[in-house]
Amino acid sequence: MSDTRSPQVLPTRKPTQHLERFSEADIPTERGSLRTVVFRDKRNGREHVALVVGQVSGHEGVPVRIHSECLTSEVFGSLKCDCRQQLDRSLDFITQAGQGVVLYLRQEGRGIGLGNKIKAYALQSKGLDTYEANRQLGFADDLRTYDIAAEMLRSLDVRSVDLMTNNPLKIAGIVEEGIPVRRRIPSRTEHNPHNVDYLRTKRERTGHLIELFAEDDDTEAKAG
Fold first, then answer.
1. pLDDT tens digits, residue range 122-142?
2. Which one is catalytic: 142, 147, 162, 184?
């Protein structure tokens, strides 16, 4: 069930102009054809991708997932997080709906990069949680930004979004960058013994709206 509560409206920042719309083509996939639009950051050459299904230009309430790269999960099949599941389910959602956008941002490890992410994993194996490990390495809890996502959506002429996320900070971040969020679509995944503590930590420390067990559904239903 979708969360229809509106996020707090924050003052919006001046729109950024860091991207060039670099290339575009239709790519056949097992889910069907995905219009693939590559944006290049003029500041550092980093490339971000929009995967588009159906007509989104000029539309309100477009289903959108803002997804940060996770090489370990999406390519190597790591079980330490649920990133691959979230990516797969968001692609399933937009292809089945016949409309939507998945923004794939090059922000590995909540923005700290692959090498530092593996360093953080080593610290986690010694008992630190995901946020404590980042801090010991000298990083904030989350270095991701959403100005690039907002600029990509403006280039695609998306007027407002139904955001697929469990992260309230992502909702606030994209609203602050000037993209209206009409509603939240929960991003539900399955936990496993390797990621359940990670997911629980995200829920308890940063307010992620994650339902881990059956009783979570019951609690939300009673609260609602």
1. 988 888 877 788 788 887 767
2. 142
